[in-house]
Amino acid sequence: MKVGANGWVSGVRRIASPNCDARPPGTAIELLVIHNISLPPGEFGGQAITQLFTNTLDTEAHPYYAQLLGLKVSAHFLIRRDGKIIQFVPCSKRAWHAGVSAWQGRSGCNDFSIGVELEGSDYVPFNDPQYVALLRLTRLLRRAYPVRAIAGHANIAPGRKTDPGPCFDWPRYLGKT
């Protein structure tokens, strides 16, 4: 894997999301934000996450999806349960993953972060292939960008978000980054 000048990573599947825009001029990528996602909640596999990030989710396909109608979100990367990585937004652009957020007194984390979604939930441990892929991706991104910190979505949006959740093994992950 390599990060190209355009912000796309070679060697991973690419599905472009329209839910992104330009970062503010001169803004460095300094934060990596770890999330979890499953659609419907607690169910893994399928195309719902990809459809959500590409605005093609059929909101009538499952009762939970009704609340997602009109939602425009994305992340730079999704790591599936089997460790496969999908990139939705080039790192050079701002993905819409953090929402209302702040890190160390600085608001608008989307401006200066890369968002990585792990297919999972707060209540199910993540798989070994996911940790392997996340470590590999983290090391790559830290070589390519001036990433100074790694945080969970819960850390940048406390009280609003809980992910990556209590089942995410921070010591295992951070001990190898």
Number of strands: 10
Indicate the structural class.
alpha/beta
Q: In CATH terms, what is the fold-level topology? A: Lysozyme-like
Question: What is the mean predicted local confidence, pLDDT?
Answer: 96
- Helical residue percent? 10-25%
CATH architecture: 3-Layer(aba) Sandwich
Strand order of the largest sheet: 1-5-4-9-3-10
**What is the element string, with H for helices and E for strands?**
EEEHEEEEEEHEHH
C-alpha termini separation: 17 Å
CATH H-level superfamily title: Peptidoglycan recognition protein-like
What report would you give on this structure?
The longest helix is centred in the last third of the chain and has 17 residues, at 128-144. The mean pLDDT is 96. Strand 4 and strand 5 (85-87) form a beta hairpin. This protein has a single domain, classed as Peptidoglycan recognition protein-like (Lysozyme-like). The protein has 4 helices and 10 strands. With 177 residues, the protein is α/β, with parallel strands linked by helices.
